[in-house]
Amino acid sequence: MEEIKQMTLAGALEGLRAKRFSSVELTRALLDVMVASQKDIHAFVTIDAEGALAQAAEADRRRAAGEEAPLLGAPVAMKDNMGVAGQPCTASSRILEGYVSPYDATVAAKLRAAGAVFLGRTNMDEFALGSTTQTSGFGPTENPVARGCIPGGSSGGSAAAVGGGLALAALGTDTGGSIRQPASHCGIVGVKPTYGLVSRYGIVACASSLDQVGPMTKTVEDAALLMDVISGHDPMDATSLDRPPTRLARQWEAPLAAQPLAGMTLGLPKEYFGDGLDPEVRALTEAAAKRAEALGATLREVSLPHAGYGIPTYYICMTAELSANLARFDGVRYGARVPAEDVLGQYLETRARGLGAEAKRRILLGTFVLSSGYYDAYYNRAQKVRTLIRRDFEAAYGACDLLLAPVTPEPAWPLGVYQDDPIRNYLSDVLTVGANLAGCCALSIPAGATAAGKPVGVQLLGPSLGEDALFRAARALELR
Amino acid sequence: MEYEVVIGLETHVQLKTRTKMFCGCGTSFGATPNTHVCPVCLGYPGALPTLNGQAIRLTVMAGLMLGCDIAKRSRFDRKNYFYPDSAKNYQITQNGEPLCLGGRVCLPGGRAIRLNHIHLEEDVGKLTHRPGCSGVDFNRGGLPLMEIVSEPDLRSPDEAIAYLTALREMMVYAGVSDCNLEEGNMRSDVNVSLRPKGQQAYGVKVEIKNMNTFSGIHAALEYEIARQTQALGRGQPIVQETRRWDPELGETFTMRTKENAEDYRYFPEPDLPPVLLTQAQIDAWAKDLPEAPAARRERMMKDYGIPEYDAGVLSADRALADFFEAAAKRSGNGKLTSNWVMAEVLALTAKEGTHVKDSALTPEALGDLLKLLDAKTINGPTAKALLPELFAQGGDPAALVKERGLGQVADADAIEPLVDAALADNPKVVVDYKAGKQAALGFLVGQVMKRSKGKASPQLVQQLLRDKLA
After folding, report:
1. Residues A63-116: pLDDT tens digits?
2. For residues A453 and A411, what is the distance between their CA atoms, to the nearest angstrom?
3. Which of A332, A342, A370 to mutate against chain B (most B CBs within 10 Å)?
4. Burial A88-110, CB ≥16 within 10 A → b, else e
5. Which residues pair with A21 in a beta bridge?
6. What is the ipTM of this complex?
7. pTM of the predicted model as reported, rounded to 2 decimal places
8. Which of A334, A360, A437, A439 has the smallest number of Cβ neighbours within 10 A?
9. Could you tell me which CATH class the domain B412-469 is placed in?
10. How far apart are CA A117 and CA A75, in angstroms?
11. Average pLDDT, chain B
12. What domains, with CATH codes, occur in chain A?
C-alpha cells in the first residue's frame, strides 16, 4: 500500500482507476489506522468495518465490470449527525444511543450513488454544540497534529480523521464555524458552502437557518470533488436552492496560471483583525495575504460594521432554533428512554440523563429568548441585526471579490482548558459566525503553523453562490 | 339581569389531499396504526418538512368561497409544546401571517358571521390509553388542517350549529373537505362568554376544546351558558380558562386557567420559506370554484321554475345538483325533471344505498326519458317501469321504447274497440258510474290500459270513456 496517511482523495481515485490497488485494499488499510488510532485520537464514535468492506467489495465488482462513478470505491468518513441507512446516528449524544438511521441523508444518498464507501462516523460536539469536540457524550477527540490540544469543533472528529491521515476525506457540518475552525486547528481544508447549496435533509438539525454540510479534506481539489457530488437542489429540503450541482473540480483540468489571482480583489475586513487576535495567527494571516498579492490579487481593507454584534446575534438565533429542534428527543419514538411513572416524568428523566450540559444550557437560552415578553427584545431584535450583518457582507462584496481573514482568534488550546467557561468558548466563534448569519460561502485552508507546531488556517469568504471564485483563490493560495 | 350570549368558533377542517401536509404519506382513514408514517411525520432526526401544494390550493379555494382576502405572502411558524401525540414536540402552523384573512359565513336567515382568518397547520397523532400503557397512532399526524376562526358574532347555540352546518356545506361543496364528523374531519373549539344585554364590551370568555359532533357542541354550549348564567347570578366572576367537554357526563371541566396557560414560543419555521402567491395563480384556482350552494339554490329556482324546497334539496349536494341540471337541460322541462329526481331517483338511491353519480343512470338518459314522457310518446307508468333498469344497467330510453314497442297508443280508432270491450265486460261498474260513483271511472281506465298492455294514453282512454258513458 502506498503512503496511506498522506494519500489524497484525488490520489486514491487515480490509484483505483489505474488498478494499482483495490477499494477493499484501500479500505482495509484505512480501517487499520483508524482502529489503531482510536485509543489516542478517538476521532470516531462508530467504525463500520464490516459495512465498509462490503461496500468496497461491491465498488471493486462494479469497477471490474467496467463501471465508473465519480467516487467509485473511495472511502469517506461521515460526521455522526448525518443519517446513513442502517448505521447508528447519535450526533454524539447519549439520548440517541441505540438509534439506527432508517434512511440516508441526501448527502449520503449522493455519495452512495457516486460509489463512495462509508468508513465510519466521526465524533463531534453533542448535537454540534461546541468548538472543541469536548461536549461529545462519548468522550473528547484529540488533535492528531497539535497533540494534547483540542481538534476544534464541532466537526472535530472529521477534522482529526483527515488531519491525522485516518480518512482521505470527510463531511462535516458548519453552523457557526464548525467545519472551518476544526479544519484550521487540524491543518486541513474545510468548506462551508452557501446556505441552500447542499441539502440538509437527513442531517440532525442544530440551527436550521444556519446549518450547512461541507467537505473536510487534505486539498482544495479534494473538497471540489466532494462538493460536485453533494451539492445541488434537493426536493426534500424546502430551503435548498434551485441550482444544479457545482462543477468546481474541472478547473484542475488546466494547470495553475503564473498569476492565478490577477484581476481579483481580496478584502481584509478590519474588524476581523482586532486586538483579541493572537500575534502568530495575525502574522500567518498577513503572510497569506502577502502571498495572494504576489499571485496577482489586489488587497483592500474593507469594513463589516456590525461584526461586533455577530456573537450575540448568532447565539440568540441558534439557541432559539435549537431549543425547538432538540424537543423531539423525548424517548417516545426512538433513542434512549428512561421510564418513569408518567409521561412528564419520562420526558424529564430521559432528557435530564440523555442530554449534556451544553445542550441543556443552550435549550434554556433558546427557550428564554422565545418566551412571551422577551421575544421582541431578543429573538426579534436578533433577526433585525442579522439582516444588518447580511447587508454588511453584501456591501463588502461590492468593493471586493472575496474576503480574506483569520479563522479563529487563537490556535488550538490544550484539552480541558476553558471547559467551565462557555462565554470564552462562544467568543472563539467570532470570525466564523458571520458567514453563517449572512448565508454566504467560506472556507479554511492551511496557512502554516505556530512556533509550537500548531496548525493555523486562513479563511476565504465569498458572496452567496460565489464558490467558483472561492475555490479558484483557495487553489492558488493552498500551501503545497 | 338579562345576558347576551357571545360565541366564537375555531373549526379545524381536514383538507381533502392525497398526501399529508409536509410529506408523501397517504391520508386514507382507518388504516392499521402507524402504517401511513415516514421519517418526516414521525419527527425522525434530520427529517425536513416540504409543503403540500394541494393543501395551499384547497385552502385558497376555501378562502375564496368564504370571501376572504388571500394573502400573497404567508408563512409557517413553530408552536412549541411537549405532548406525546406530537412527533416533533412542536406543531407547524401559521401564527403571524395566515393564508386567508377576513371572510364570512352567511346563515340561512341571511345574517353574515365574520371570519377573522383561516390558517393551515398539521394534525397531531391519536392517543389511545390502555391500563398501564398508552399508544400513539401517527397515521393522523401531519394530516393537513385548515383552522377557520370566526369573530365572536354568534349569539346562541342554535346559531353556532347553523354556522357549522353552512360552513360544512360550503367546504364539501367546494371539494375542499369531506367534513366527515365520524372520521374527525371537522372539529371545533368554542369560545363563549356572557355580557349584560346592551353592553358593548365582551365578558370573560371560556374556551371549550375539541368537539367533533354538532350535538356535542350544542349541548356543551347549553351547559356552559347555564353554568355562566348561574355563576354571574350568584355574583361569582367568570374565570378565563380552557374547559373540556365530557359527553358522558354532559358537563364541562377546567383544563387550565389563564395563569398557567402555555407559552407556545411561536417563531418562524426556518425549514419552510414563506408561501408566495401571485394574483394570476389565485385567479386560476378561482376558476375551479363551484357556485356557492345558496347562490345556486336561488338560480335554480329561477332557471328551472322549481319550488324553493326542491331547489334546497338539490343544491345541498353538488353532484346531485349537477345531475339535475344536466338532466333538466336535456329534457327541456325543469319542473318535470325536478319532480322525477326528487321522487323517483332519490327513492332508487335510498333503496340501493348509493348515489346517483355512482349509478348507471346518466343525466342524459333521464333527460331523454322525460322528453319522451313530455312528448307523450310514452306514458307515466312506462317511464316509471323503465327507470330502475336505466338506473341499474344504463341504456338509451328512445332505443328501448322502440325496440320493445312501448310507445303509447294515442290513436282513438285503435283504442275505441278496447273501450267498448271493457264497458261490455263490466256492466255493474257502468251502472255504479252512472249512479255517481266517480271511482268507477278509474277502474274502467285500468281495464282499458290492461287490454292495451299499458301502452294506451291514459288521458285519451279517459276521454273516450267519458264520451261513451255520457
Report:
1. 999 999 999 999 999 999 999 999 999 999 999 999 999 999 999 999 999 999
2. 10
3. A332
4. bbbbbbbbbeebebebbbbbbbb
5. none
6. 0.96
7. 0.87
8. A360
9. mainly alpha
10. 4
11. 91
12. 4-248 (3.90.1300.10)
